[in-house]
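Field reference: sequence -> structure
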Amino acid sequence: MLDIQSHVSLKPYNTFGIDAKARYWVEIQTEEQLKTLFQLTEFLTVPKLVLGGGSNLVFTRDFDGLAIKMAIQGIEVVREDESHVYIKAGAGVNWHQLVMHCVENGYAGIENLSLIPGTTGAAPMQNIGAYGVEIEQVFDQLEAVAIQTGETRVFTHAECRFSYRESVFKHEAKGQYIISSVTLRLNKQAVFHVEYGAIRETLAEMGISEGQLSIKAVSEAVIRIRQSKLPNPAEIGNAGSFFKNPEISKGQFEDLKTVHPMMPGYPTGDLTVKVPAGWLIEQCGWKGKQMGNAGVHSKQALVLVNLGGATGAEILHLAQNVQQSVEEKFGIRLNPEVNMV
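Structure field:
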């Protein structure tokens, strides 16, 4: 049975800790409950907001609609072949818990994505990635329920149309489906990605040599790095990386390098170069700065934080000021990775 509540605070359901309210709120624990919800005619035309871990949201106002908290659990092996294991997880499964489950069972491919906040259902929507790995590299398929019909549809890798922090669910299919489960194709034989960030250096500090590499060691290294750089949302409100790393043309990058010789850049292989947004923000003097109750984290300029009682409007105002200064100094427009509501 569905327990639809009215005028519910969303503060516990977003990692920024912004106190917005939803006109209606419901928690979904099974796909059948989701289908039942879409049969309620009184909610057919009501705006809907899907909540996972709330780690990619900024509430700039109350939500005059139905907030749907996805809490579908379950992790299972659905099939395997000589090289791969296919793991199906409910949309409400905590992403890091899924990674830990796979690491403990020797299923390789997502260890570099350790400690990313949020739920499994949200992961393909954003095509989450870190340290040289994106979910699309291990994605097999997902199941989603159509809001208008209540029918379940399977989306293949190709149908998800993945790109950098993008998928079909942020564009053509936006607002049309709610993801209920995700299936990943993981490797029985690990292929390690340790050349990104400080993974190799951290492994060395841990006393792990090349010959001792394991997915558990890589996962632990990533966790160490993230904990040293990123604030815990339970202690200070934030949504992790606030902006995408911009991709600019090689020509623009080379021009900027003549003025800013220390500018880092990573060729993407398609005539563009990815520039770390955190470096750009830091060069503009924002690291550790505060505007009202919002600020830029003192250890990682890519992270905006709620310093206590910040409204979504304050977070947005800070973000816009950061964007403006980066564009003025470098001619690069930063695009938010988080969703504004």
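Note: The mean pLDDT is 91.
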